[in-house]
């Protein structure tokens, strides 16, 4: 059974999808803790499921590196409580770039979702950037986090056609409809060994 530590900053729709999947005994992963950098409303999904949560605020740390160390320590503390080493860390809407020390501690067992077909349109405004570029197709990517900004190896992608005149809000919502099942399926593939995070030949 793969154990997951999920990191969020907002409403937690991807977390909710993982928790719903994990409620099925046949799903080969379980969420053992949920962390955030703020009082994220999505923590309520974890509370409802009885999953431990924690908040590590960057403002409470002297440096980004210190924040990363504190975040890693919370994940380790919660994973040790359920004998869950190694653990897969899922950035599911965490709106912060993780410090290099944190990445080194967990990667490649550290994944993220991004609302574009990487390597196209990295960064925080991927949907807006795709529309501004006149893209006719975009989508969502699940990738391994490395020390760059959305530069890590791609694990899985799903594509969506951009509709003429579509707004950023509407396009982003359609991408989210793909994002949730793609993340659930990617975690399943990692758990059952279809994706071996130590073997890039299994990534796509």
TrEMBL record:
Enzymatic reactions: N(1)-(5-phospho-beta-D-ribosyl)glycinamide + (6R)-10-formyltetrahydrofolate = N(2)-formyl-N(1)-(5-phospho-beta-D-ribosyl)glycinamide + (6S)-5,6,7,8-tetrahydrofolate + H(+)
Protein's name according to its UniProt entry: Phosphoribosylglycinamide formyltransferase
Binding site for N(1)-(5-phospho-beta-D-ribosyl)glycinamide: 12-14
PANTHER family: PHOSPHORIBOSYLGLYCINAMIDE FORMYLTRANSFERASE (PTHR43369:SF2)
Top-rank taxon, per record: Bacteria
Organism: Leucobacter rhizosphaerae
Pathway(s) annotated for this protein in UniProt: Purine metabolism; IMP biosynthesis via de novo pathway; N(2)-formyl-N(1)-(5-phospho-D-ribosyl)glycinamide from N(1)-(5-phospho-D-ribosyl)glycinamide (10-formyl THF route): step 1/1
Binding-site residues for (6R)-10-formyltetrahydrofolate, renumbered to this chain: 64, 95-98, 112
Enzyme class label: transferase
Residues at the catalytic site: 114 (proton donor)
Protein family: Belongs to the GART family.
Keyword check for RNA-binding: no
Xref: InterPro entries: Formyl_transf_N (IPR002376), Formyl_transf_N_sf (IPR036477), GART (IPR004607)
CDD domains with a match to the protein in the record: FMT_core_GART (cd08645)
């Amino acid at each position: 059974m793969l154990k997951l530590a999920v990191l969020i900053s907002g409403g937690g729709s991807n977390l909710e999808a993982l928790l719903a999947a994990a409620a099925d005994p046949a799903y080969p992963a379980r969420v053992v803790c949920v962390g955030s950098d703020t009082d994220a409303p999505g923590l309520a999904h974890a509370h409802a499921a009885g999953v431990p949560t924690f908040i590590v605020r960057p403002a409470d740390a002297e440096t980004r590196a210190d924040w990363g160390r504190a975040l890693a320590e919370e994940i380790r503390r919660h994973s040790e409580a359920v004998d869950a080493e190694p653990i897969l860390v899922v950035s599911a809407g965490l709106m912060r770039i993780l410090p290099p020390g944190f990445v080194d501690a967990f990667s490649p067992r550290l994944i993220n979702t991004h609302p574009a077909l990487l390597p196209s349109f990295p960064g925080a405004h991927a949907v807006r950037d795709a529309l501004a570029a006149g893209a006719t197709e975009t989508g969502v990517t699940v990738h391994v986090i490395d020390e760059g900004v959305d530069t890590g190896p791609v694990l899985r992608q799903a594509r969506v056609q951009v509709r003429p005149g579509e707004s950023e809000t509407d396009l982003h919502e359609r991408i989210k409809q793909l994002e949730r099942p793609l993340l659930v399926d990617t975690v399943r593939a990692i758990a059952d060994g279809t994706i071996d995070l130590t073997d890039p030949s299994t990534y796509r």
